[in-house]
Design brief:
There is one protein chain. With about 230 residues, the chain is mainly α. It folds into 2 domains: about 100 residues, no CATH class; about 130 residues, no CATH class. It is built from 10 helices and 2 strands; from the N terminus they run ααααββαααααα. A two-stranded antiparallel sheet has the order 1-2. α2 runs antiparallel to α3, α8 runs antiparallel to α9 and α8 runs parallel beside α10. It is globular, with a radius of gyration of 19 Å. It starts with 6 loop residues before the first helix and ends with a helix. The relative contact order is 0.10.
Length: about 230
């Protein structure tokens, strides 16, 4: 994504094959091209430190602002650029991809997109935080999730902590049971964000920090705690 040209121009270049297919009302070709482009973007993001993704976020925001074609068909439904159609599913497919040796990056990418308001991937935050903080008893979180899992969870607090905290205060929920509580959370019926969930995350985060051995992981988790304290004090 050439930084020497405006983000709007980069956005048009990025999705040009997709736009051409949709202009020709070839939905199948458009979907295939879009899936391929998003795969390339996600692959790049998964291998790039989160603090170096400013240009990617900027260009994707510009893609969301594109006006032509105004609407097109994706998976049998009308879609528009502002939805960044298929990006969420592509990220979801890559979530457990073993090629991602460092899941921190892909979680940080999703967190940055969410925090920037480019696309709402906040349910992905719950999936990661639930897996790490809610599916094990506190004393076993670090031993079960390891350094990679704990750092992946940290990415959401570091890069989207303010947004997650706001969602907890607002009580953001989701359809069906995609955001239910984890297996070690008893007596609750959650399907999204709420104050009790936020408090549980923080309590368990403090517990995890006591058990971490790896020095780099300690630093990442401490950075996450600083972000938590910062948003909680607002």
């Amino acid at each position: 994504m050439d930084a020497s040209i405006p983000a709007s121009s980069a956005a048009n270049l990025l999705v040009a094959p997709v736009a051409s297919a949709f202009f020709a009302t070839d939905s199948e070709a458009g979907e295939a091209a879009l899936w391929d482009i998003w795969n390339q973007v996600v692959e790049y993001a998964s291998q790039t430190p989160a603090h170096e993704l400013d240009r990617v976020i900027e260009v994707l925001a510009a893609v969301a602002d594109l006006e032509e074609p105004a609407t097109f068909e994706v998976w049998g439904k009308q879609a528009a650029w502002k939805q960044l159609p298929l990006l969420g599913p592509v990220i979801r497919e890559s979530w457990d991809d073993e090629r991602h040796a460092e899941p921190f990056n892909i979680n940080a990418f999703a967190a940055r997109l969410t925090a920037a308001g480019v696309i709402d991937l906040s349910v992905y935050a719950i999936w990661t935080l639930r897996s790490v903080l809610e599916d094990s008893v506190p004393s076993q979180i670090y031993s079960k999730s390891g350094d990679k899992g704990c750092k992946a969870a940290a990415a959401w607090f570091i890069y989207a902590g303010k947004v997650l905290y706001t969602f907890c205060k607002e009580g953001k929920t989701y359809d069906s049971c995609v955001a239910k509580q984890g297996s070690d959370v008893v007596g609750e019926d959650w399907n999204g964000y709420n104050d009790r969930r936020w408090r549980l995350w923080i309590e368990r985060w403090e517990e995890v920090q006591k058990n971490v051995v790896d020095e780099d992981t300690k630093k990442v988790l401490q950075k996450a705690m600083e972000a938590i304290l910062d948003v909680s004090s607002d």
